[in-house]
Structures are given as structure tokens and as C-alpha cells.
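seq as requested:
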Amino acid sequence: MLELSILGFLYGGALHGYELKERIQGLSGHVRPVSDGALYPAITRLVRNGLVDSQTEPGAGAAPRRTLSLTDAGRAELFARLRSPKDGEITDGQRFFTLLAFLGLLPDPAEQAAVLRRRQAFLEAPASFFYADGAPVRAEDEPDPFRRGMLRIARATGTEEKAWLTETLADLDRRAGAADRGRSHGADAASPVIRKAGPKP
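C-alpha cells:
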């Protein structure tokens, strides 16, 4: 997800390394701190693979600054990762949040909806932190107050997320339908009209 964050933030324009780190830190640093030991090797991999361009320029002081920008290949890679996230990026809450931060960059609402439907399907499957006889334990049946708290918080969060997914998917489906109709009308307008010759008077 670190590489996705790098590509996603660079989509908006070139950034210096420290600016990029601050943005990633703001997105997920409160949960998963971003260290230089993880960030800069990730940047190096992306540069080596031609997804990010790195230019060194003089800094305000003695140290030079590195400016990072997204290449065309990097933009294509970003879209590919957003269209087809890994299963763990759907099921893990923090990874899914990182995905959501950049999902709006995909231009096609139908592709955005396809990703959200995967999350929706995951949330609809019966699940719990704890199981008894192979069945998920409900908050009402958990005697331990702390475990019961975990289950209640998770249920409340899940209920709100499911409501948001339902609303957002309805909106995306409307937009996708309007886009399809627009393309269809455009194709009709662009097609030449062939008229059969009638009988001569």
C-alpha cells in the first residue's frame, strides 16, 4: 500500500521527498508510521521500474532536493492497481482506507463500483473476532465486557460502512448508466445515416 500511496499522491503533481512523506504520514501514519527505511527504498523501486521520475535540484540550503513526478507508465500502473486491488486490500480496513483515498482518480464510475462491491460482499459475509462451535459470536452472547466492546464497536462501524456503500454504489450506478447512454447517443450521432433511394418520380 506504500507504493500505491506514492503513486496516488504524485498523480496530483510533482512533490519533494519530504512533502510526499508528510502526505503519506497524514493518511496512515497515526496507525502505521512511515519510516525513511521503508519509504525511500519504495521510491527507488518505483524509479527503477520507470513508474516515477526523480530529478535532483538545489535546495534552499546546502543539501540538494529530490523532486518526484509520475510517469505515464506510473499513471497506468496506478489505475491498474485501483481497478484490481488484491484481496487483502479489500478485507483489511486500513488498506481499504488507503485504496479509498485514491479510488476517485479512476475516471470510470463502473470500475469504482466494482471495487466497492467487493468490499460490500466481504462485509455481508458472517464474521466475528471470536467463534464458538464454528459460528461467529454475537456481542449479546459475549460475557467478557472487553470482547463485547470489540464486537459492538465493529458492528456499529460495519453498519455505517454498509449504509455508505449502498448509497455510493447507487450514485455510481446512476453515473455509469448516464455515461453509457451518452456514449451510445454519441455513437448514433457519429454514424452516417444511409437512406435507400426511393422510386424516381
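Helices lie at 2-11, 17-28, 36-48, 72-83, 87-91, 93-103, 109-124, 145-190.
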